[in-house]
Amino acid sequence: MVSKARGKDRLWSHTREPLKQALLKKILGSEELSQEACMAFIAVLKYMGDYPSKRTRSVNELTDQIFEGALKAEPLKDEVYVQILKQLTDNHIRYSEERGWELLWLCTGLFPPSNILLPHVQHFLQSRKHSPLALDCLQRLQKALRNGSRKYPPHLVEVEAIQHKTTQIFHKVYFPDDTDEAFEVESSTKAKDFCQNIAARLLLKSSEGFSLFVKIADKVISVPENDFFFDFVRHLTDWIKKARPVKDGIVPSLTYQVFFMKKLWTTTVPGKDPMADSIFHYYQELPKYLRGYHKCTREEVLQLGALIYRVKFEEDKSYFPSIPKLLRELVPQDLIRQISPDDWKRSIVAYFNKHAGKSKEEAKLAFLKLIFKWPTFGSAFFEVKQTTEPNFPEILLIAINKYGVSLIDPRTKDILTTHPFTKISNWSSGNTYFHITIGNLVRGSKLLCETSLGYKMDDLLTSYISQMLTAMSKQRGSRSGK
């Protein structure tokens, strides 16, 4: 398994010399892999302070050089493990040894060794229980065996954490009601586990339909549930960095925020999950209502205005005189000019007085129950420019919701047509467009839209359709099981 390049003892102990060839026999047959192994080892030496190195441009520059090759080529995974274990054997330089343990900690969070090497790695860790990271590495190894290998090298957050001697990484997550909480995220945490942890902490009945979103630069992107959380963020930051030029040799810092929100509203019924209504559904639906995306009657607008006031100020009537100034927060923006500010105030106050004693939470639920009756409840809305349908306005409002894709006249708010998911055969998106095909290729029709939010429409459509297909296959399964 191991090449006999030099004396066995020297081969298996700490060195400050670069390797002339890979440590494992299985790699020696490939010159390319062998060369990559030697380059990775130089990065290991540099990271551990055993080899002269220029100041790195970023915290994860060396860890990228160590792990990138192994994540692309399976045989290099064992090679990297063996290189790190070698550098931790008979290492009497304290700084170097500490840095070596950091690398082993990162490695056990990325991928497990092969079945042949696994017992050796486990034995190494068990025989060094005195080391502060040994137990944690063993646990990380178990999780890597259970969850499989990551796709990308460690995220900056992981590297910084272990360099600061913290093995627990806490991540702030923001919610639509303007609150946030910190959650522990591990190297092996997948988005689905993260969602379930959040749902449990917030006492939600279920995490179904919820998703994590990462806000970075000017984009908000949903994290696929089976992705490792740090893989996704790493991939995203790399992708955005490529699109942004490096100025004066300085890599732009890419800070990101993590949001947790309801994404798919298929099974959402107000009143069924009070915590979800209170923290998510109300605060996610309110801005869409105020932007004027729904078709509603004056009566409904007055009722809703009184309920929004109650959520804001509860029973406090001292803000009544300020209602004319607060109209943008109480009434859909396109309706504000329909009557005078004083008329709005009088009518909203009259509706407010009808519901004396209603609590803030009851007002949120009443708001949701009213808008739940509308076919556009729980929609994601997109303003687009279309050129393919002469009978429709050029500027269209597209709503994607549990019923499918609705095309709405932005002026009248009338739903012009709704394409159910079962009739949608194809879609594609780019930086400036979103295309969708309805029906089959022979008798189908195409809708071409200009929009900068094509990536969001594409993702939402994909998620709703895959949810529908999963539900259909479950139904078939339960029928055949009877």
Automatic annotation (TrEMBL):
Residues 14-163 form the MyTH4 domain. Transmembrane segments: none annotated. This is Unconventional myosin-VIIa. Belongs to the TRAFAC class myosin-kinesin ATPase superfamily. Myosin family. It is found in: Cytoplasm. Pfam families: IRS (PF02174), MyTH4 (PF00784), RA_2 (PF21989). SMART domains: B41 (SM00295), MyTH4 (SM00139). PROSITE patterns: FERM_3, MYTH4. SUPFAM superfamilies: PH domain-like, Second domain of FERM, Ubiquitin-like. It comes from Gulo gulo (Wolverine). Keywords: Actin-binding, ATP-binding, Cytoplasm, Motor protein, Nucleotide-binding, Repeat. InterPro entries: Band_41_domain (IPR019749), FERM/acyl-CoA-bd_prot_sf (IPR014352), FERM_2 (IPR035963), FERM_central (IPR019748), FERM_domain (IPR000299), IRS_PTB (IPR002404), MyoVII_FERM_C2 (IPR041794), MyTH4_dom (IPR000857). One of its GO terms (molecular function) is ATP binding. It comes from the Eukaryota. Residues 169-472 form the FERM domain. GO terms for cellular component: cytoplasm; cytoskeleton. CDD domains: FERM2_F1_Myosin-VII (cd17093), FERM_B-lobe (cd14473), FERM_C2_MyoVII (cd13199).
